[in-house]
């Protein structure tokens, strides 16, 4: 695919040279070539944007491992999932544990409990 993009870009750079030649022929031909160049550029942009998508949120993890992946991953993912920065989420978990007595359960950690709450809140916000 990168080869196709390279070929298209080199074609457009060649068109700039053609525009200089056309300059002597008249404004109508020059405008026509510019419109073709703009149209082709928009088509290439659209093709790349909508046909080459990277998969997102493809984690096969769940529970505690998923929460740790979110907290140790990209900061934007944490903000999307929990609506707060990583440092704020960790500080909140520590505060809930130390000041309010939130304890880990038999099979669930404090981080996982808080994450479940915020994922639920996020789901309710979108309805």
TrEMBL record:
Ranges where the DUF8040 domain occurs: 58-119
InterPro entries, A to Z: DUF8040
Top-rank taxon, per record: Eukaryota
Name of protein: DUF8040 domain-containing protein
Originating organism: Dipteronia sinensis
């Amino acid at each position: 695919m990168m080869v196709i993009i390279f070929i298209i870009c080199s074609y457009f750079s060649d068109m700039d040279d053609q525009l200089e030649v056309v300059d002597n022929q008249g404004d109508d031909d020059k405008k026509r070539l510019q419109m073709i160049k703009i149209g082709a550029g928009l088509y290439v942009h659209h093709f790349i944007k909508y046909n080459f998508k990277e998969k997102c949120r493809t984690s096969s993890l769940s529970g505690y491992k998923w929460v740790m992946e979110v907290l140790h991953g990209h900061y934007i993912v944490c903000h999307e999932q929990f609506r707060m920065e990583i440092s704020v989420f960790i500080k909140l978990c520590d505060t809930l544990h130390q000041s309010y007595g939130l304890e880990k359960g038999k099979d669930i950690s404090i981080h996982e409990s808080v994450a479940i709450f915020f994922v639920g809140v996020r789901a309710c916000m979108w309805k």
